[in-house]
Design goal:
By secondary structure, the protein is α/β, with parallel strands linked by helices. It has helices at about 10-20, 35-45, 55-70, 135-150, 170-180, 215-225, 250-255, 285-305, and strands at about 75, 80-85, 95-105, 110-120, 125, 130, 160-165, 190-195, 205, 230, 260-265. The chain binds zinc ion.
Amino acid sequence: MPRTPLLPTAVLAACLHAAASSASGQQLPAVDAARLIADVAVLAHDSMEGRAAGTEGNRRARAFLARALAETGARPLGGAYDQPFEQPFDWERGSGVNLVGAISGRGDDSEVIVLTAHYDHVGVREGQVFNGADDNASGVAALLEIGRRIAVDPLEHTLIVALVDAEELGARGARAFVAEPPVPLEHMALNINLDMVSRTDGLLWAGGASHTPALRPVLERVAARAPVTLRLGHDRPGAPEGDDWTQLSDHVAFHERGIPFVYFGVEDHPDYHRPTDDVERVDPGEYVAAVQTILMALRELDAALPLAPAPR
Ligand SMILES: [Zn+2]
């Protein structure tokens, strides 16, 4: 029996504080801090057993996410949210499953934005549950909150939301998504990928502009107003080992197909890929500021489409 996820009262108190202090004069998008933290607490609970692809804990997380996705107002693409995919090579744990929905835009539907976040993590190792609160319950809960906001105040373009599986095994869910896309790839104007967005320590990275220079002025406009330091980078080919994050998360699948991406994420921290990546270590104020920034960026990017092609 899974234990019932509980939200520690200390976390709740911190949420309320975060909600109050984020409105420091400037107009920031509203986000539900308590809901964000509550969703991370569910996904990063021991009962989810670290959400490794193909496991019972992963399936349990997916059942929660299908309900949460339905609540956002996103409609399933292709009959159901669940989009199973076969593994490309020897994998005994069965198929992976992406969850895919869409929120219609107000206007032109010839181009769509695809918002991705992986919900799998690395599971249980030597009896220790790797809860993956920042990696990547934070990106998943952010995607859900953004979905709820966009559903009531839509973008110009349709937003496809994809909670992808098996990122930790090499962006397999994202690669399956682009291999059998719900809309033709040439209609995908942009991928926005969220992977580790809560533990900012005041600094959030946006990658992708080195590959698509037209993104730079848009992201710089966002950075000027953001409630967190938003820095562009970690996307230069030929950078020292580990400094270029282009290959390191689901956006790589879109990049490989020539689709521009913006990756939002934080620097590695001491709990990265350790059993201590727990919800208690997420600072609600930092997390809320990151989600507000991503929501601002999403709206700016939506307004900026179509992007000028990269110079050759
Ligand atoms: Zn991750």
